[in-house]
Amino acid sequence: MPSDKSIFKQGSTTYYWSSKFFPKNVRRDVFKLYSFVRVADDYVDAIPSNKKVFKKLVSLHKQSISDETFDTEVLPTDTINQQVVKNIVAVSHKYSFEPEWVDSFLDSMQADLDQRQYEKLEDSLWYVYGSAEVIGLMMSKIMGLPPRAYEAAKMQGRAMQWINFIRDIDEDNQLGRMYFPLHELETFGLKDLSKKTAQANPQAFKDFMLYQIARYNEWQTEANDGYQFIPKRLRLPLMTARDMYSWTAQQIAKDPLIIYDKKIKPSKKRVIFRAISIIN
């Protein structure tokens, strides 16, 4: 059975190495949260998608939250689904997560399986709420932040998810997904976000990408307002992750077409060096 740490590590360079700077007690519960998130996301992103296994995960979670006697102790004999469901139930109870947060997350994962399209920005933000904003809310609870920090936490999740959308356009094309509002493609004269279309309309594609990056910057500015509510000891990993996402946005802004050639992600070394620079 893989550890929560190894599940998280395999899924995200930036989040994993940034989270290493949390105090041990916080880090342990962050790993529990992300073990569930990563496993669900991996089922959905597999080629082909593991729809049956994802369905079993959802069913197991529903059973667990309706069972008042559900035991969250992870056993060596547990399946991966049992392990991560116990983890999410444990942290949900410990920190009093709103029940709809996990439901919204799973709804967004199902939307990926359904290859749902998003006509307007509000439709895209429905997906973002479930896939990222609720994670920000859960993290706020784990860190013990006051309710006045929650809106900024949601915005931080939104901003980071938007960069994921921008960075992963080519990968999402292969999965039959596109998260940007369809009407915005029309506005910029793009029929889709395929490499062929982007290369045939380089200026339109660049303008579209810079428009999306500007939107990310706007949301990130709003998210920055919440850092005042975060205890100094807990700011380091969050600021590190934030700065790495900003670095990713900057690299793509220099040459938007680069997203078709490689996945822009900071290295472990860059993440750690950034954390050290913040400390100093």
Q: Any descriptors?
A:
globular; mainly alpha; 14 helices
Descriptive notes:
The protein has 280 residues and is mostly helical. Helices cover 72% and strands 0% of the residues. It contains 14 helices and no strands. Helix 4 (51-65) runs parallel beside helix 5 (80-95) and helix 12 runs antiparallel to helix 13 (232-254). It is globular.
Outline the secondary-structure elements:
Elements: H1 4-11, H2 13-19, H3 24-45, H4 51-65, H5 80-95, H6 99-113, H7 121-143, H8 150-167, H9 169-175, H10 182-187, H11 195-200, H12 202-224, H13 232-254, H14 268-279
Helix pairs in contact: 1-2, 1-3, 2-13, 2-14, 3-5, 3-6, 3-7, 4-5, 6-7, 7-8, 8-12, 8-13, 12-13, 13-14
Residues in β-strands, percent: under 5%
| Major sheet description | none
User: Could you state the order of secondary-structure elements as H and E?
Assistant: HHHHHHHHHHHHHH
Overall mean pLDDT: 94
* CA-CA gap between termini: 38 Å
- Computed Rg: 19 Å
* Share in helix: over 70%
Which residue ranges are poorly predicted, with pLDDT under 50 across at least 5 consecutive positions? none
Overall shape: globular
Structural class label: mainly alpha
What's the number of extended β-strand segments? 0
